[in-house]
Amino acid sequence: MNKTHPQRNGDVAAFDSTKSFSEERARGGPCSSCRGCTWRCACISATALLILTAAAAALGLALVLLPHVPANRFCAASNNQTGFLCDDRVTCVLASQVCDGANNCRDGEDEQEELCGDLPHSLPGFLVFRCGNPTLWVYVNQRCNGMNDCGDCSDEMGSLAACPPCGSEWWSCSPVLYEYCSCVPRRLCQDGIQHCLSWSDEYICRP
């Protein structure tokens, strides 16, 4: 005689393997909140972790490949004159070559609109020399170059320019020509043309 054993309250009902995963989720099954950590939950978590890791790696690579723009553009160009440092951190162009219409930096950063759009206000201050007339300006490497670039000689004479005495290639005098201020090039000495008010360029100076 077969006996039947009624199910006790403490018994756990068997899991029906024929039920789908979606049905199990709809019923609030073990993966509905990833409690119980079934293999399905573990798979989803591992996939999410892989995606986040790949995204972080891609971001890191992009940051490495981005060009590092120099924070300070100041550099010493030829003859120790003030220059503009290009993005490659190697090329240093003269101040007067910035915004001159020619790409002197490899990527043309010396001609960008941000730099050249409102001269001289858009230029870094170290590239600009203000003349005695505050409405006029020249590039800083044009100060003390022997030429009257400001038009009033304020870039060559006086405390504003603070230029050293005439160099060995120049002759000190009061020039006749407007283009010079307090020196004339020695190559003009004894050329048969008066360049100094005192005529010293013709009678004293030696080329």
By oligomeric state, this entry counts as: single chain
Give the distance, in angstroms, between the N- and C-terminal Cα atoms: 138 Å
Spatial ordering of strands, largest sheet? 1-2-3
What ranges have pLDDT less than 50 throughout 5 or more consecutive residues? 1-15, 28-34, 62-67
Described by the principal axes of the CA atoms, the overall outline is elongated
What Rg is obtained from the alpha carbons, in whole angstroms?
A: 40 Å
List SSEs in N-to-C order: HHEEEHEEEEH
Strand elements, count = 7
Number of helices: 4
Largest sheet: 3 strands, antiparallel
Mean pLDDT: 81
Pairing-aware structural class of the strands and helices?
alpha+beta
What does this entry look like structurally?
By secondary structure, this protein is of the alpha+beta class. It has 4 helices and 7 strands. It has helices at 21-26, 39-65, 113-116, 200-203; strands at residues 74-76, 82-85, 92-94, 128-130, 137-139, 170-172, 183-185. The strands form 3 sheets. It has a 3-stranded antiparallel β-sheet, with no helix packed on it. A two-stranded antiparallel sheet has the order 4-5. A hairpin with a 6-residue loop joins strand 2 and strand 3 (92-94). The chain starts with 20 loop residues before the first helix and ends with a helix.
